[in-house]
Amino acid sequence: MRVHRLLVCLAALFFTAPTLAAEPLSPSPTPAAVDPAFALWLTQLKQEALANGISQQTLDAALTDFQPIPRVIELDQRQPEFVDTFWNYLDRRVDEKRLALGRDNLREQKKLLRKVQARYGIPATVLIAFWGMETHFGRSMGSFPTPAALATLAYNNRRSAFFRAELLQALTILEQKHLPAADMKGSWAGAMGQMQFMPSTFLRYAIDADGDGRKDIWHSLPDAFHSAAHYLRQSGWRPGEIWGREVRLPEGFDYDEARLDLKKSVNRWAKLGVRQASGKPLPKANVSGAIILPQGHGGPAFLVYRNFDVIMEWNRSINYALAIGHLADRLNGQPPLLLGRHADNQRLTREQFIEIQNMLGRLGFDPGEIDGVPGSKTRLAIRAYQKAAGLPVDGHASAGLLEYLHKAPAKGTPDS
After folding, report:
1. 302 - beta bridge partners?
2. Measuring CA to CA, which of 12, 122, 161, 267 is 20 to 30 A from 55?
3. Which residues of 134-153 are buried (b: 16+ CB within 10 A; e: fewer)?
């Protein structure tokens, strides 16, 4: 799969969860009686690995005395308590401390970053933004043994086939001797190194930039930065183009046109009255982009381009992609966002979002699975309901929407 860290991208584009790499590794559990089903599963896994060219030596180094890690299971089953807002998400990730560290690292790694940009066309500020977001500039890469974490998820998780494939690819990395098994550590979900690559991403895109014969994204910044830039370029990054910009929407703008899958040329958006956030006209360009409203029609608006889509390949969260883009802009000397600070910033609990989904269903608007996750089908249902109710059609779940739904008559009642 092309999506980096697919496991840790929440289905909800607006969920916020603690940084996965920062989770501490719990002590090894006291040995217990071996579960026969688990013993059979592990035997079959090792047989598959051997058939795929993994040596017994590698298996012994990675999975000897392996038992599922309870903390990994706990983290996998944990559900976010809140559906967070864009502003809360952004303010925690683009703050003065992270900006200061980012500027320091830009200076310290200037020579290396210049070489990477010359080869791949990825701006230094973008790479530093990813590094800062993923592992706090290498400070929080995770302490879970990757093979054991992936094996735990492959045995216990509902996505066992995916994790099993990632485990086999992690074993392939060890077989290729890029690092010792004892040093292969990362997040509970198997993301590794300075930039938190999944094993499949590593095998596709990792680069031995320092020429030592190993692709070491854990300890070698040249390898880590070249690998990240290679991934972004292969995902379609367009050198010389920006990811997007904050914009000011005209009075009477049709918010139903503000969605990621509806793209128009910059010239067309300009004719519709869209301007830069400062009020200046948009530059003349035939580049296509989409308008997105991460906190509804009362919040900030962004016109995003192809490079934003590439960031979304890395992590399928709109909030994440906007945070990466804005952090890179701030590191490049641009100012904070100008508009939308007075939007409704109340977080919804999962229970409240489930309530929204249930109420939409009762009113005849299909929200998809009732799971408390603001996925694409639920957002379409919100848009359909907003259109029918004469509300701004922004597809945004908010406390105001929930309050309005409480007042709405059920489908089929005399007032419906």
Report:
1. 246, 292
2. 161
3. bbbbbebbbebbbbbbbbbb
Written as six digits, the tokens of 132 are: 């800062």
The answer to whether residue 69 is domain-embedded is yes
Q: At what angle do helices 70-77 and 146-156 cross, to 10 degrees?
A: 60
Both 142 and 263 in one domain: the answer is no
Q: Rounded CA gap, 307 and 320, in Å? A: 14
Same domain, 119 and 204: yes
Residue 389 domain boundaries:
348-407
Q: How far apart are CA 47 and CA 43, in angstroms?
A: 6
Handedness of CA 181, 182, 185, 188 (dihedral sign): positive
The predicted model scores a pTM of 0.89
The verdict on 51 and 164 lying in the same domain is yes
Q: What is the CATH number of the domain that holds 392?
A: 1.10.101
**With 0-12 CB in 10 A as exposed, 13-18 as middle and 19+ as buried, what is 408?**
middle
* Segment-wise mean pLDDT, segments of 10 residues, the chain, 416 residues: 42 38 45 76 96 97 93 87 89 97 98 98 98 98 97 90 97 98 96 98 98 98 98 97 98 96 96 97 94 96 98 95 98 97 92 95 94 89 96 94 86 45
298, 343 Cβ separation under 8 angstroms: yes
Q: Tell me, yes or no, whether 24 and 157 share the same domain.
A: yes
